[in-house]
């Protein structure tokens, strides 16, 4: 097998995905790396071999003869970088969220179709074992026809992850209801079998806005300040100079197939995990834990409260980051670069997740008024539903 030549733009924490595909002689090799930080570029040779091409500007790699590129940069840069690559016929892996506005996503979808260039979005949670197992249970009809999906997201390290760098500035993310919530909204859509068409939301900057300790972090990475000892939330220091995104948010959704859903997100809980509840015409399903050792419980008989479910499905994480989801995600992208066709992840679904999160943020910042979410243009929807063929 000839090695396909892969590029990576952005050498931060998510560049572990590039490490997963750097397998010289075994199908793929990282041939080019791009980052604005020269110190990160200086390490590229050790990671990917002395022959790796490096650049500080992604446009320098447009003529590098790459077969595919991972775009793992801050959210607000995804659209511009993605458009540049797509217009040059280079298959693109965009980390989630694919853009920070609905319009930005639609421009990316249109460009991918216009240039007939393959577009992939890194919604790795579709490969997360607990989510895949819940999807299978729904598909088996165990809870009947799905009528409601609820998700509570306890973001235990939210202060360190999202309020000490560029994430805290809405110019870079729109808001965390979109940035962080895109994962969960996509899962809600996947489990419900539909897309959001109306939302309303409430929330605010309820804790971190009261912390006066701020500071620039030029040259630092999240691993430089992340610590289990940063607790309780009000004891945090060195927040981003601009903090104008919400740390608590709640949204309600009405989907196009009649399913109703809700999503709640809090960035200062002591625990860090997601809890999904799916209610159907014949039962209720809920996950307890979302990593190795988690289990899914299903109740199908009437009762008062009882912790013992009628069906218990244990979940074991596979090897690799994010419960084994990242290796599957990286492998799927490589297969998509080589062969094209349908994938477990979906650019169309990724757009719908952003669109719901974007509309919810508009609602949240305008008194919770209902906001409608327009669908993708029919011709674009057909193109991506057909596997971009």
Notable characteristics:
389 residues, alpha/beta
Task: Tell me what you see in this structure.
A nine-stranded mixed β-sheet has the order 14-13-12-11-7-10-9-8-15, with helices on one face. The protein has a six-stranded parallel β-sheet with strand order 3-2-1-4-5-6, with helices on both faces. It has helices at residues 16-21, 38-42, 44-48, 78-87, 102-114, 129-139, 158-162, 170-173, 176-179, 181-192, 222-225, 325-339, 347-364, 378-385, and strands at 4-9, 28-34, 53-55, 68-71, 92-95, 119-122, 146-154, 196-204, 248-255, 260-266, 273-280, 283-288, 295-299, 311-314, 371-372. The chain is built from 14 helices and 15 strands. The two termini are 24 Å apart. α1 links the parallel β1 (4-9) and β2. The longest helix is centred in the last third of the chain and has 18 residues, at 347-364. It is an alpha/beta fold. The radius of gyration is 21 Å and the shape is globular. The model has no long low-confidence stretch (mean pLDDT 96).
Give the topology, please.
Blueprint: E1 4-9, H1 16-21, E2 28-34, H2 38-42, H3 44-48, E3 53-55, E4 68-71, H4 78-87, E5 92-95, H5 102-114, E6 119-122, H6 129-139, E7 146-154, H7 158-162, H8 170-173, H9 176-179, H10 181-192, E8 196-204, H11 222-225, E9 248-255, E10 260-266, E11 273-280, E12 283-288, E13 295-299, E14 311-314, H12 325-339, H13 347-364, E15 371-372, H14 378-385
Helix pairs in contact: 4-5, 5-13, 10-13
